[in-house]
Amino acid sequence: MWTGPAVLPQTEARPLPDGSLAVGAPRIMNRREARTELVNPLAETPEAVAEGRALYEIYCALCHGDQGSGDGDLARHYRRMPPLTAPHVLNYPDGFLYAIIREGGRNMPRFGDALSVDERWALVHYLGALGPRDETAEAGSR
Question: Could you tell me the residue ranges of all domains in the chain?
């Protein structure tokens, strides 16, 4: 045990084994399913948005920047850092944003193990508050 490898938090994503099923919990949807089927169960209250903001400052601002414009301290180390204030990102459905937070992305770590379900949904509420909504967007989107 003294010479074992050190595994730092959020450095080694451990997806569920192939063929495993959730017992006593709903099945985890992929992004395509989540886009249309997942609905934010958390009411969009000032408290939920404030919690989302605090979580954003801890987990997201380092890469995406304080205002979500993709200019965080680590952004220069990556080829492309998506601005969260872009119109197409602001119009993503809540379920899609939730799935991205849970599973991560190309260079983004997964936060499914670091954040509870309610914390992820609070973060989705805060992401929707980063910019104005587009009223012509698809149903269920921000």
Answer: 45-128
Count the Cβ atoms, other than its own, within 10 Å of residue 29.
16
Question: Taking the model in full, what pTM does it have?
Answer: 0.75
Q: Return d(Cα 135, Cα 118) in angstroms, integer.
A: 26
Question: CA-based diameter of the chain, in Å?
Answer: 59
Q: Which of 129, 107, 120, 113 is nearest to 38 (CA)?
A: 120
φ, ψ (nearest 5 deg) of residue 93: -65, 150
Q: How many Å apart are CA 4 and CA 17, to the nearest integer?
A: 23
- pLDDT, one tens digit for every residue, the chain (142 residues): 567 777 676 666 666 677 777 677 767 788 888 898 989 999 999 999 999 999 999 999 999 999 998 888 888 888 888 889 998 888 999 999 999 999 888 888 889 889 999 999 999 999 988 876 555 555 555 5
**What residues contact residue 130 under an 8 Å CB cut-off, 6+ apart?**
67, 68, 84, 85, 90
Q: Distance between CA 41 and CA 33 in Å, rounded?
A: 16
Classified by CATH at the fold level, domain 45-128 comes out as Cytochrome Bc1 Complex; Chain D, domain 2 (1.10.760)
